[in-house]
Specification:
Largest sheet: 6 strands, antiparallel
Strand content: 25-35%
Strand order of the largest sheet: 16-17-26-25-22-23
Shape: elongated
Low-confidence stretches: 1-33, 771-778
Number of strands: 31
Distance between the termini: 152 Å
Helix content: 25-40%
Number of helices: 22
């Protein structure tokens, strides 16, 4: 510039990274550059005028620098500046400071009109860089669609914002606007509370979630993420608040939809009960998706059946199954019951039956229904829009989901329609699974109920009452069973058994075992022999089972036979818990028996135990589900059962009532295993209703036996049975003398039938045959079969008994 670079004494320079631009002394006092430093140079680069802001920047006053070449103030003169012929329009240099430091500045120069002078303005370079970067950042933020920047003054009035084009409320936001002019009063006050706190404390607020509604459009809700920090002047005094509002509506909606889909997957379908599944669905949808939800299912779904395939209006046989929240005020549904009135035929209904989800306003929905009664059922008070989705599975419409939004809730969107369609499809499968389970479970329960005997029986030997509680409170079926089988000669067989496993297979096995035991009981086998034959049957069933299931076919069983004439009870156990005996005096104890192996193991012997029973005694047979509970063990459970039987088995209390009370006290509402209990209150045939004689081993004993029988029947007033009884006694005694071995016995028993028994010491099984016309004998048993109602033979140890029964027509 033609200016000499004269030396002026300055202190040594320092690194800007460790010292302030103003030197050590100036770091301790607040120096700011609120104004640009300015100087006027002539065309040769000589300082002609010097401003106060230039003095603030360099520490030199006007008297010290005016008249000097400006390059004297430059600490390091760049080559391009040293050789320049005129003052550059802009640049960056390091100036000397009077305190000895240097100041790096950015400058701009402009020619002044009139005299040949230049105006030079300068500012610290880092300040300029900050301003440049800040301006770039502000422009970038202002151009973002999802980010709204608002500068609030100390009264929280909006002074400047990039929302002037109207993204906030659909109209321009002018300077001087307050949040309450844009947002609903409640939402505006919530945000202003945060801004006031930032203004007062200076602590920034970061990512505070706010849900807002516009003042002029309350139904339009947005999810905002608010961040705010305080604005300060050069002296650190608050001048306002800068707020960044990030629109997270789409992200929040997507996250909410994912959360809802996850909740549906986790909470709906965990139960195989149709009603509970529907209620779980309604509970998930409120309030996550709507303010009120209702689930209606076809009546046939309750019964496990498929709904009718039909299109068009009419009675769809729907029932309101679930609602949420439970406290919803919907008088038509709560007061009118849960049956849904018939629908009119319209395009909406046909689209719904074809699997389409639709959204409609309350007003339009009422016009579509066109019926006040239907409107009351389908439009709850205070709601403005509804989404109805069909529960459509395998081409069947199982029901409908109705979700309502009320008050300030936003209307449904298209992406929410897609979400609800997916939810309805998933939940329809869950409900259909529950429906099909209901059908299968009812069939299984019906099968098991058909396999069990009547709950109570009345026989000459005993009064019985059986109670049964399936596992899972009815949700599962198993192979536990009990039975009371009336046997000849007024005897009674009592059975309790437990098949391994659960489900239809266990029930089927139980049915086969029960049928086999009934058949073998009619053969009047001893308890140990009967269990041996049943064990062989179980082995055959295991061999027939599919590969891999052989080890899970098995059962335990207790078989007892009570004779009301002798008042004795013979029993044997195949791995089954012992029965409990309650005597007439109220004392109770388990019967000491020797249990054999479970029925899955054949080839092992069983042992028969015989006890005497007083009349009015109670014998309790049960399965392990009644006595095994968690860690308590079966011994503790048996002790509890024994004590409770002693307390509850009173003569004046019905057996079925006692059994139900025992199950209620001993078994949980939803037990892990089936529980079965059979109670038998014994009876005895009075001595005057029986007669007994020993038969001599001689042919003359046949006529003598006829005379004994005739006299006894006359005493009993059964003269109408004299002829047939004499013939039966004659044939049975003849066979005993001819084919049997002494000693032989004749016994008559009177009850509702007349029983005639002949016992001998031979084990030969009698056989009835049709004799030829030329045969002199062989007609005895054939004749007995014609005269008696039924007849048979039972075997004991080293003996057999042939018996017959005749009905007694009249009372005595």
């Amino acid at each position: 510039m033609g200016i000499e670079n004269a030396d002026i004494p300055f202190a040594a320079t320092a690194d800007d990274n460790t010292k302030s631009s103003f030197g050590t002394d100036h770091r301790r006092r607040p120096h700011t550059f609120d104004r640009l430093a300015a100087a006027v140079l002539d065309e040769r680069g000589t300082v002609v005028r010097w401003t106060a802001t230039a003095q603030d920047l360099t520490g030199f006053n006007g008297e010290e620098v005016c008249g000097l070449p400006v390059l004297k103030l430059v600490a390091e003169v760049p080559d391009e500046l040293r050789t320049a012929t005129q003052i550059p329009a802009s640049g960056r240099v390091r100036l000397r400071h009077k305190g000895g430091d240097t100041v790096e500045v950015t400058f701009q120069a402009a020619r002044v009109e009139g005299p040949a002078e230049f105006l030079v303005v300068a500012a610290p370079a880092h300040h300029v860089a900050h301003h440049v970067h800040g301006a770039a950042l502000l422009r970038a933020l202002s151009s973002q669609d999802r980010i709204t920047i608002a500068l609030h003054d100390t009264d929280l009035t909006i002074m400047q914002t990039n929302a002037a084009s109207g993204p906030i409320d659909g109209c321009a936001v002018q300077p001087g606007t307050r949040l309450c002019d844009v947002l609903c009063a409640e939402d505006a006050e919530s945000i202003q509370t945060v801004l006031r706190q930032v203004l007062e404390t200076g602590v920034p607020a970061a990512r505070i979630n706010q849900r807002v509604s516009w003042r002029h459009h309350p139904g339009r809700q947005r999810a905002l993420s608010l961040s705010a920090f305080r604005l300060e002047d050069a002296l650190g005094r608050p001048t306002g608040v800068a707020a960044l509002y990030i629109d997270d509506t789409d992200h929040v909606r997507a996250r909410r939809h994912l959360d809802l889909a996850r909740d549906v997957a986790e909470r709906v379908g965990s139960s195989l009960d149709v009603v509970r599944t529907a209620q779980d669905l309604a509970n998930v949808l409120v309030p996550a998706f709507g303010d009120l939800a209702a689930v209606d299912l076809a009546q046939s779904v309750y019964d496990g059946e498929e709904p009718a395939k039909r299109l068009g209006g009419g009675d769809l046989h729907l029932r309101n199954t679930a609602m949420a929240p439970a406290t919803a005020a919907w008088p038509a549904r709560t007061r009118g019951g849960n049956l849904i009135p018939p629908f009119p035929d319209n395009p909406f209904l046909r689209g719904f039956q074809n699997g389409r989800t639709f959204v409609i306003s309350a007003e339009d929905y009422g016009a579509v229904l066109a019926d006040p009664q239907l409107t009351d059922f389908h439009i709850p008070p205070g709601c403005h829009s509804v989404m109805v989705a069909p529960l459509h599975a395998r081409g069947l419409t199982l029901g409908a989901i109705s979700v309502w939004r009320c008050g300030r809730s936003a209307p449904f969107t298209e992406d929410e329609v897609d979400l609800m369609t997916q939810i309805a499809s998933r939940c329809a499968l869950a409900i259909d699974n529950a429906r099909r389970y209901t059908r299968e479970h009812r069939a299984a329960v019906a099968l098991q109920q058909r396999l069990l005997p009547p709950a109570t029986t009345e026989t000459p030997a005993a009064q019985t009452a059986g109670v049964y509680r399936p596992a899972g409170g009815g949700a599962e079926i198993s192979g536990d069973w009990y039975d009371a089988i009336a046997l000849p000669s007024l005897r009674l067989a009592l059975v309790a058994g437990d098949v391994v496993g659960h489900g239809m297979a266990a029930s089927a096995t139980m049915g086969r075992l029960r049928a086999a035991i009934q058949t073998l009981a009619d053969l009047e086998l001893e308890p140990d022999e009967l269990l041996t034959r049943i064990a062989d049957l179980v082995q055959r069933l295991a061999a027939e089972a599919p590969a891999g299931d052989h080890d899970i076919v098995g059962a335990t069983c207790l078989y007892a036979v009570y004779d009301p004439v002798t008042r004795r009870c013979a029993m044997a156990s195949a791995g089954h818990p012992p029965p409990v005996l309650v005597r007439p005096d109220g004392t109770a104890e388990p019967v000491g028996i020797s249990p054999g192996p479970p029925l899955a193991l054949s080839g092992m012997p069983y042992e028969t135990t015989t006890i005497d029973l007083e009349p009015a005694s109670v014998l309790a047979l049960y399965t392990d589900g009644l006595v095994e509970h968690g860690e308590a063990g079966s011994n503790e459970g048996l002790r509890r059962l024994t004590n409770m039987l002693a307390a509850m088995c009173r003569p004046d209390r019905a057996l079925d009532e006692t059994g139900q009370a025992l199950l209620a006290d001993l078994v949980a509402a939803e037990p892990r295993d089936d529980a079965t209990l059979l109670l038998a209150r014994t009876r005895a045939v009075p001595a005057e209703d029986t007669a007994h004689w020993e038969i001599p081993a001689e042919p003359a004993a046949v006529s003598q036996a006829r005379e004994w029988a005739a006299r006894q029947l006359s005493r009993w007033g059964l003269d109408d049975l004299l002829f047939s009884t004499e013939l039966i006694v004659s044939e049975l005694v003849t066979n005993a003398i001819r084919y049997g071995r002494a000693p032989a016995e004749l016994r008559l028993i009177r009850h509702d039938v007349l029983v005639c028994e002949v016992t001998d010491s031979s084990s030969t099984q009698p056989r009835m045959r049709r004799a030829q016309t030329t045969d002199e004998g062989g007609r005895g048993l054939f004749l007995v079969a014609q005269l008696a109602g039924r007849w048979g033979c039972r075997h004991g140890q080293n003996r057999k008994t042939i018996w017959s029964e005749q009905s007694i027509e009249r009372s005595y």
